[in-house]
Protein backbone atom coordinates (compact mmCIF):
# COMPACT_ATOMS: atom_id res chain seq x y z
CA UNK A 1 0.00 0.00 0.00
CA UNK A 2 1.42 3.40 -0.99
CA UNK A 3 2.28 5.65 1.92
CA UNK A 4 0.31 8.66 0.63
CA UNK A 5 -3.00 7.02 -0.25
CA UNK A 6 -6.15 9.12 0.19
CA UNK A 7 -7.65 8.53 3.65
CA UNK A 8 -11.33 8.76 4.58
CA UNK A 9 -12.63 9.84 7.97
CA UNK A 10 -16.14 9.89 9.41
CA UNK A 11 -17.15 12.53 11.99
CA UNK A 12 -15.50 15.92 12.54
CA UNK A 13 -16.16 16.49 16.24
CA UNK A 14 -13.39 17.04 18.75
CA UNK A 15 -11.35 13.96 17.86
CA UNK A 16 -12.35 13.62 14.22
CA UNK A 17 -10.92 17.11 13.63
CA UNK A 18 -7.56 16.42 15.27
CA UNK A 19 -7.35 13.01 13.53
CA UNK A 20 -7.98 14.65 10.14
CA UNK A 21 -5.34 17.27 11.00
CA UNK A 22 -2.75 14.60 11.79
CA UNK A 23 -3.37 12.76 8.52
CA UNK A 24 -3.38 15.96 6.44
CA UNK A 25 -0.14 17.08 8.09
CA UNK A 26 1.39 13.72 7.16
CA UNK A 27 0.78 14.54 3.49
CA UNK A 28 -2.43 12.61 2.65
CA UNK A 29 -5.55 13.79 0.90
CA UNK A 30 -8.47 13.45 3.34
CA UNK A 31 -12.19 13.07 2.63
CA UNK A 32 -14.29 13.56 5.77
CA UNK A 33 -17.87 12.31 5.87
CA UNK A 34 -20.11 14.33 8.20
CA UNK A 35 -23.74 13.99 9.22
CA UNK A 36 -24.77 17.47 8.08
CA UNK A 37 -22.80 20.14 6.24
CA UNK A 38 -23.99 22.85 8.65
CA UNK A 39 -20.93 22.28 10.90
CA UNK A 40 -18.45 21.93 8.02
CA UNK A 41 -17.13 25.51 8.12
CA UNK A 42 -16.61 25.38 11.88
CA UNK A 43 -14.68 22.10 11.52
CA UNK A 44 -12.61 23.50 8.66
CA UNK A 45 -11.64 26.53 10.79
CA UNK A 46 -10.79 24.27 13.76
CA UNK A 47 -8.52 22.15 11.55
CA UNK A 48 -6.89 25.27 10.07
CA UNK A 49 -6.17 26.43 13.64
CA UNK A 50 -4.54 23.09 14.47
CA UNK A 51 -2.43 23.23 11.28
CA UNK A 52 -1.28 26.76 12.16
CA UNK A 53 -0.33 25.50 15.61
CA UNK A 54 1.71 22.69 14.05
CA UNK A 55 3.46 25.18 11.77
CA UNK A 56 4.34 27.41 14.75
CA UNK A 57 5.87 24.37 16.45
CA UNK A 58 7.91 23.52 13.33
CA UNK A 59 5.95 20.29 12.84
CA UNK A 60 4.28 21.04 9.50
CA UNK A 61 6.43 20.21 6.54
CA UNK A 62 6.17 20.63 3.69
CA UNK A 63 3.45 23.18 2.96
CA UNK A 64 1.62 26.09 4.50
CA UNK A 65 -1.52 25.51 6.62
CA UNK A 66 -3.93 26.76 3.94
CA UNK A 67 -2.29 24.63 1.23
CA UNK A 68 -2.48 21.58 3.48
CA UNK A 69 -6.13 22.36 4.25
CA UNK A 70 -6.71 22.38 0.48
CA UNK A 71 -6.26 18.59 0.59
CA UNK A 72 -9.39 18.23 2.80
CA UNK A 73 -12.85 17.58 1.37
CA UNK A 74 -15.81 17.65 3.76
CA UNK A 75 -18.91 15.90 2.45
CA UNK A 76 -22.19 14.30 3.49
CA UNK A 77 -22.09 11.97 0.46
CA UNK A 78 -20.70 8.55 1.36
CA UNK A 79 -20.09 7.80 -2.34
CA UNK A 80 -17.05 10.12 -2.25
CA UNK A 81 -15.27 7.52 -0.08
CA UNK A 82 -15.64 4.87 -2.80
CA UNK A 83 -11.98 4.46 -3.78
CA UNK A 84 -10.48 4.89 -0.32
CA UNK A 85 -8.49 1.98 1.09
CA UNK A 86 -8.58 3.25 4.68
CA UNK A 87 -11.51 4.95 6.45
CA UNK A 88 -11.33 6.00 10.09
CA UNK A 89 -14.60 6.54 11.95
CA UNK A 90 -14.68 8.89 14.95
CA UNK A 91 -18.37 9.62 15.55
CA UNK A 92 -20.28 9.50 18.86
CA UNK A 93 -19.68 6.49 21.11
CA UNK A 94 -22.85 4.55 20.10
CA UNK A 95 -22.81 0.94 18.84
CA UNK A 96 -25.94 1.48 16.74
CA UNK A 97 -24.74 4.72 15.14
CA UNK A 98 -21.29 3.29 14.41
CA UNK A 99 -22.74 0.10 12.90
CA UNK A 100 -25.09 2.10 10.71
CA UNK A 101 -22.10 4.11 9.41
CA UNK A 102 -20.24 0.84 8.61
CA UNK A 103 -23.23 -0.52 6.70
CA UNK A 104 -23.23 2.66 4.58
CA UNK A 105 -19.47 2.39 4.08
CA UNK A 106 -19.69 -1.26 3.06
CA UNK A 107 -22.10 -0.31 0.30
CA UNK A 108 -19.41 1.79 -1.42
CA UNK A 109 -15.98 0.51 -0.30
CA UNK A 110 -14.01 -2.34 -1.83
CA UNK A 111 -14.08 -5.54 0.31
CA UNK A 112 -10.43 -5.05 1.28
CA UNK A 113 -10.72 -1.40 2.32
CA UNK A 114 -9.92 -1.06 6.02
CA UNK A 115 -12.54 0.43 8.37
CA UNK A 116 -11.08 1.64 11.66
CA UNK A 117 -13.00 2.89 14.67
CA UNK A 118 -11.72 5.39 17.21
CA UNK A 119 -14.03 3.88 19.84
CA UNK A 120 -12.84 4.47 23.41
CA UNK A 121 -14.17 1.27 24.88
CA UNK A 122 -16.65 -0.61 22.65
CA UNK A 123 -15.15 -4.06 21.90
CA UNK A 124 -14.28 -4.22 18.19
CA UNK A 125 -15.93 -7.68 18.04
CA UNK A 126 -19.29 -6.03 18.82
CA UNK A 127 -18.79 -3.45 16.05
CA UNK A 128 -18.04 -6.27 13.56
CA UNK A 129 -21.36 -8.04 14.11
CA UNK A 130 -23.61 -8.26 11.05
CA UNK A 131 -21.12 -6.76 8.57
CA UNK A 132 -20.36 -8.29 5.17
CA UNK A 133 -16.57 -8.06 5.62
CA UNK A 134 -15.86 -7.92 9.35
CA UNK A 135 -12.27 -9.07 8.80
CA UNK A 136 -11.24 -5.54 7.72
CA UNK A 137 -12.75 -3.81 10.75
CA UNK A 138 -10.28 -2.70 13.44
CA UNK A 139 -10.07 -0.43 16.43
CA UNK A 140 -7.78 2.54 15.72
CA UNK A 141 -7.68 4.29 19.05
CA UNK A 142 -6.15 7.79 19.20
CA UNK A 143 -5.48 10.12 22.10
CA UNK A 144 -6.51 13.76 22.14
CA UNK A 145 -5.01 16.05 20.81
CA UNK A 146 -4.51 13.50 18.02
CA UNK A 147 -2.36 15.81 15.86
CA UNK A 148 0.22 16.02 18.67
CA UNK A 149 0.18 12.79 20.73
CA UNK A 150 2.26 9.76 19.72
CA UNK A 151 -0.27 7.32 21.18
CA UNK A 152 -2.20 4.82 19.08
CA UNK A 153 -3.69 1.41 19.79
CA UNK A 154 -4.59 -0.78 16.81
CA UNK A 155 -7.05 -3.46 17.94
CA UNK A 156 -8.13 -6.70 16.28
CA UNK A 157 -11.67 -7.90 16.94
CA UNK A 158 -12.42 -11.64 16.94
CA UNK A 159 -12.97 -11.57 13.16
CA UNK A 160 -10.19 -9.14 12.17
CA UNK A 161 -7.34 -10.30 9.97
CA UNK A 162 -3.94 -9.41 11.42
CA UNK A 163 -2.58 -8.24 8.04
CA UNK A 164 -4.97 -5.27 8.05
CA UNK A 165 -3.84 -4.28 11.54
CA UNK A 166 -0.21 -4.51 10.46
CA UNK A 167 -0.94 -2.22 7.50
CA UNK A 168 -2.38 0.40 9.86
CA UNK A 169 0.58 0.11 12.24
CA UNK A 170 3.07 0.85 9.48
CA UNK A 171 0.92 3.65 8.04
CA UNK A 172 0.55 5.21 11.51
CA UNK A 173 4.30 5.21 12.00
CA UNK A 174 4.49 7.53 8.99
CA UNK A 175 1.96 9.79 10.81
CA UNK A 176 4.38 10.25 13.73
CA UNK A 177 2.61 7.69 15.95
CA UNK A 178 4.16 4.97 18.08
CA UNK A 179 1.38 2.38 17.82
CA UNK A 180 0.68 -0.62 20.05
CA UNK A 181 -0.99 -3.66 18.47
CA UNK A 182 -3.68 -5.59 20.38
CA UNK A 183 -3.93 -9.00 18.78
CA UNK A 184 -7.01 -9.93 20.85
CA UNK A 185 -10.02 -7.80 21.66
CA UNK A 186 -10.67 -6.60 25.20
CA UNK A 187 -13.02 -3.87 26.44
CA UNK A 188 -11.08 -0.63 27.13
CA UNK A 189 -7.92 -1.88 25.36
CA UNK A 190 -4.65 -1.07 27.18
CA UNK A 191 -4.66 2.52 28.38
CA UNK A 192 -8.34 2.84 29.23
CA UNK A 193 -8.29 -0.35 31.32
CA UNK A 194 -5.31 0.95 33.27
CA UNK A 195 -6.49 4.56 33.43
CA UNK A 196 -9.94 3.56 34.72
CA UNK A 197 -8.39 1.32 37.40
CA UNK A 198 -6.45 4.43 38.46
CA UNK A 199 -9.57 6.66 38.31
CA UNK A 200 -11.53 4.22 40.51
CA UNK A 201 -8.82 4.36 43.15
CA UNK A 202 -8.54 8.16 42.86
CA UNK A 203 -12.29 8.55 43.55
CA UNK A 204 -12.05 6.05 46.42
CA UNK A 205 -9.32 8.08 48.15
CA UNK A 206 -11.29 11.33 47.76
CA UNK A 207 -14.73 9.97 48.64
CA UNK A 208 -13.49 8.14 51.74
CA UNK A 209 -11.76 11.30 52.95
CA UNK A 210 -8.12 10.15 52.70
CA UNK A 211 -7.08 13.00 50.41
CA UNK A 212 -8.53 15.91 48.46
CA UNK A 213 -8.85 16.11 44.68
CA UNK A 214 -5.88 18.53 44.74
CA UNK A 215 -3.74 16.12 46.81
CA UNK A 216 -4.45 13.16 44.53
CA UNK A 217 -3.63 15.20 41.44
CA UNK A 218 -0.44 16.60 42.98
CA UNK A 219 0.87 13.16 43.99
CA UNK A 220 0.21 11.59 40.63
CA UNK A 221 1.65 14.47 38.63
CA UNK A 222 4.88 14.35 40.57
CA UNK A 223 5.33 10.57 40.82
CA UNK A 224 3.73 8.66 37.95
CA UNK A 225 3.51 11.81 35.79
CA UNK A 226 7.22 12.38 36.17
CA UNK A 227 8.40 9.03 34.77
CA UNK A 228 5.66 7.49 32.66
CA UNK A 229 6.39 9.21 29.35
CA UNK A 230 9.93 7.91 29.65
CA UNK A 231 9.49 4.39 30.93
CA UNK A 232 6.09 2.66 31.11
CA UNK A 233 5.30 0.47 34.15
CA UNK A 234 7.38 -2.60 33.25
CA UNK A 235 10.52 -0.63 32.32
CA UNK A 236 10.04 1.41 35.50
CA UNK A 237 10.04 -1.76 37.64
CA UNK A 238 13.24 -2.83 35.86
CA UNK A 239 14.79 0.55 36.61
CA UNK A 240 13.83 0.64 40.26
CA UNK A 241 14.13 -3.01 41.35
CA UNK A 242 11.52 -5.72 40.86
CA UNK A 243 11.20 -7.61 44.21
CA UNK A 244 9.93 -4.62 46.19
CA UNK A 245 6.91 -4.44 43.86
CA UNK A 246 6.07 -8.06 44.60
CA UNK A 247 6.15 -7.41 48.33
CA UNK A 248 3.88 -4.37 48.02
CA UNK A 249 1.49 -6.21 45.65
CA UNK A 250 0.90 -8.91 48.26
CA UNK A 251 -0.29 -6.41 50.85
CA UNK A 252 -1.82 -3.73 48.64
CA UNK A 253 -3.83 -5.65 46.02
CA UNK A 254 -6.42 -6.94 48.54
CA UNK A 255 -6.80 -3.40 49.88
CA UNK A 256 -7.51 -1.62 46.57
CA UNK A 257 -11.02 -0.51 45.71
CA UNK A 258 -12.90 -2.91 43.44
CA UNK A 259 -16.38 -1.39 43.43
CA UNK A 260 -18.34 -1.63 40.17
CA UNK A 261 -20.67 1.36 40.66
CA UNK A 262 -19.78 4.75 39.17
CA UNK A 263 -18.53 7.04 41.98
CA UNK A 264 -21.09 9.25 43.76
CA UNK A 265 -18.94 12.34 43.13
CA UNK A 266 -18.96 11.61 39.39
CA UNK A 267 -22.77 11.17 39.41
CA UNK A 268 -23.16 14.47 41.29
CA UNK A 269 -20.98 16.49 38.89
CA UNK A 270 -22.56 15.02 35.76
CA UNK A 271 -26.01 15.62 37.28
CA UNK A 272 -25.06 19.29 37.75
CA UNK A 273 -24.10 19.57 34.06
CA UNK A 274 -20.33 19.75 34.63
CA UNK A 275 -18.38 19.11 31.40
CA UNK A 276 -14.97 20.28 32.62
CA UNK A 277 -13.03 23.21 31.18
CA UNK A 278 -15.26 23.31 28.09
CA UNK A 279 -18.10 24.81 30.20
CA UNK A 280 -15.91 25.96 33.12
CA UNK A 281 -17.55 23.45 35.52
CA UNK A 282 -15.52 20.58 36.91
CA UNK A 283 -13.70 19.06 39.88
CA UNK A 284 -12.05 22.47 40.31
CA UNK A 285 -13.69 25.91 40.21
CA UNK A 286 -13.07 27.88 36.98
CA UNK A 287 -13.83 31.25 35.54
CA UNK A 288 -14.22 31.29 31.74
CA UNK A 289 -10.74 32.91 31.59
CA UNK A 290 -9.03 30.33 33.82
CA UNK A 291 -10.72 27.46 31.91
CA UNK A 292 -9.35 28.88 28.65
CA UNK A 293 -5.94 29.29 30.23
CA UNK A 294 -5.93 25.57 31.24
CA UNK A 295 -6.94 24.51 27.72
CA UNK A 296 -4.17 26.60 26.13
CA UNK A 297 -1.53 25.49 28.62
CA UNK A 298 -2.45 21.84 28.00
CA UNK A 299 -1.75 22.28 24.28
CA UNK A 300 1.57 24.02 25.03
CA UNK A 301 2.52 21.17 27.38
CA UNK A 302 1.46 18.55 24.78
CA UNK A 303 3.99 19.94 22.28
CA UNK A 304 6.74 20.07 24.92
CA UNK A 305 6.13 16.52 26.14
CA UNK A 306 6.06 15.23 22.56
CA UNK A 307 9.45 16.82 21.90
CA UNK A 308 10.83 15.33 25.12
CA UNK A 309 9.42 11.88 24.25
CA UNK A 310 10.98 12.07 20.78
CA UNK A 311 14.34 13.21 22.18
CA UNK A 312 14.56 10.34 24.67
CA UNK A 313 12.95 7.86 22.27
CA UNK A 314 15.91 8.42 19.93
CA UNK A 315 18.41 7.70 22.73
CA UNK A 316 17.08 4.21 23.56
N1 LIG B 1 -12.60 12.84 23.29
C1 LIG B 1 -11.59 12.03 23.53
O1 LIG B 1 -10.63 12.37 24.25
C2 LIG B 1 -11.58 10.65 22.92
C3 LIG B 1 -10.44 9.85 23.06
C4 LIG B 1 -10.39 8.60 22.42
C5 LIG B 1 -11.49 8.16 21.70
N2 LIG B 1 -12.62 8.95 21.62
C6 LIG B 1 -13.75 8.41 20.84
O2 LIG B 1 -13.82 9.15 19.63
C7 LIG B 1 -15.17 9.18 19.16
C8 LIG B 1 -15.57 10.64 18.94
O3 LIG B 1 -15.43 11.34 20.14
P1 LIG B 1 -15.38 12.94 20.21
O4 LIG B 1 -14.85 13.28 21.55
O5 LIG B 1 -14.75 13.49 19.00
O6 LIG B 1 -16.96 13.26 20.17
P2 LIG B 1 -17.71 14.58 19.63
O7 LIG B 1 -19.04 14.56 20.30
O8 LIG B 1 -16.84 15.79 19.78
O9 LIG B 1 -17.87 14.30 18.08
C9 LIG B 1 -18.72 13.35 17.53
C10 LIG B 1 -19.07 13.81 16.13
O10 LIG B 1 -19.69 12.73 15.44
C11 LIG B 1 -20.65 13.33 14.58
N3 LIG B 1 -21.58 12.28 14.14
C12 LIG B 1 -22.52 11.64 14.86
N4 LIG B 1 -23.13 10.70 14.09
C13 LIG B 1 -22.53 10.77 12.86
C14 LIG B 1 -22.72 10.08 11.63
N5 LIG B 1 -23.64 9.12 11.52
N6 LIG B 1 -21.93 10.40 10.58
C15 LIG B 1 -20.97 11.38 10.67
N7 LIG B 1 -20.77 12.08 11.81
C16 LIG B 1 -21.55 11.77 12.89
C17 LIG B 1 -21.27 14.43 15.40
O11 LIG B 1 -21.91 15.39 14.58
C18 LIG B 1 -20.02 15.01 16.11
O12 LIG B 1 -19.45 16.03 15.30
C19 LIG B 1 -16.00 8.44 20.21
O13 LIG B 1 -16.16 7.11 19.83
C20 LIG B 1 -15.12 8.57 21.45
O14 LIG B 1 -15.39 7.55 22.39
C21 LIG B 1 -12.68 10.18 22.19
Helix and strand run: EHEHHEEHEHEEHEHHHHHHH
CATH superfamily of the largest domain: NAD(P)-binding Rossmann-like Domain
Approximately how much helix is present in the residues? 40-55%
Query: Which residues form runs of ≥5 with pLDDT under 50?
Result: none
E-strand count: 8
Query: Termini distance?
Result: 29 Å
CATH class bucket of the largest domain: Alpha Beta
In short:
The protein is α/β, with parallel strands linked by helices.
Question: What can you tell me about this protein's structure?
Answer:
Helix content is 48%, strand content 12%. With 316 residues, it is an alpha/beta fold. It has 2 domains: 7-182, 3-Layer(aba) Sandwich (Rossmann fold), CATH 3.40.50.720; 192-315, Orthogonal Bundle (N-(1-d-carboxylethyl)-l-norvaline Dehydrogenase, domain 2), CATH 1.10.1040. An 8-stranded mixed beta sheet has the order 3-2-1-4-5-6-7-8, with helices on both faces. Helix 1 packs across helix 2 (40-56). The longest helix is centred in the C-terminal third of the chain and has 28 residues, at 288-315. The chain starts with 6 loop residues before the first strand and ends with a helix. 27% of the residues are buried. The model has no long low-confidence stretch (mean pLDDT 96). Nicotinamide-adenine-dinucleotide binds next to helix 1 and helix 4.
Key words describing this protein structure:
2 domains, Rossmann fold, eight-stranded mixed β-sheet, alpha/beta, N-(1-d-carboxylethyl)-l-norvaline Dehydrogenase, domain 2
